[in-house]
Amino acid sequence: MIFYLHGFDSTSPGNHEKVLQLQFSDPDVRSVAYSTIHPRHDMSQILKQVHQQLSLSPNEPALITGVGLGGYWSERIGFLCGIPSLVFNPNLHPELNMQGRIERPEEYSDIAGKCISNFRHQYKGRCHVVLSRNDDVLDNTATEIELSPFYSIIWDEQQSHKFKDISAHLALAKELRSVPSI
């Protein structure tokens, strides 16, 4: 099973397209909806949904993936649920770059402070990051510097921030599903 978390633009038709593409790796793709504007509530809701689905299918291989803000959540929820993640252009600091777009961006700082410190050390090697060189929203060089000590980084030369076409990375998604949950 693959959990897909949309980015900030939750109503974009590109989200449905990504789900359809992911179905080439696993026919069981589950979109996890969240508001994008209330971070504390979002974390609780996403964690509850993913944990519930995992408990209903405890022996099924699982992967969580997302783009942008969905990548931010995929890394954290993957860690908390013990499943591997594949993140595309993750927005690592929404508390800084989502000002004026969400109601309480400071909640992201609060979430970071309440999460397990240095969780990336414990999650090392279980998250894979795909960054686009043509990202028009985030500085992916800074993202690479922050994440490369913990995760493998794959550069995509074609896609923009929203990663309309993830097909070049479907084999990796399929491979990661076979990584055992912890």
Automatic annotation (TrEMBL):
InterPro entries: AB_hydrolase_fold (IPR029058), UPF0227/Esterase_YqiA (IPR008886). Gene3D superfamilies: alpha/beta hydrolase. It comes from the Bacteria. PANTHER family: ESTERASE YQIA-RELATED (PTHR35602), UPF0227 PROTEIN YCFP (PTHR35602:SF2). This is Uncharacterized protein.
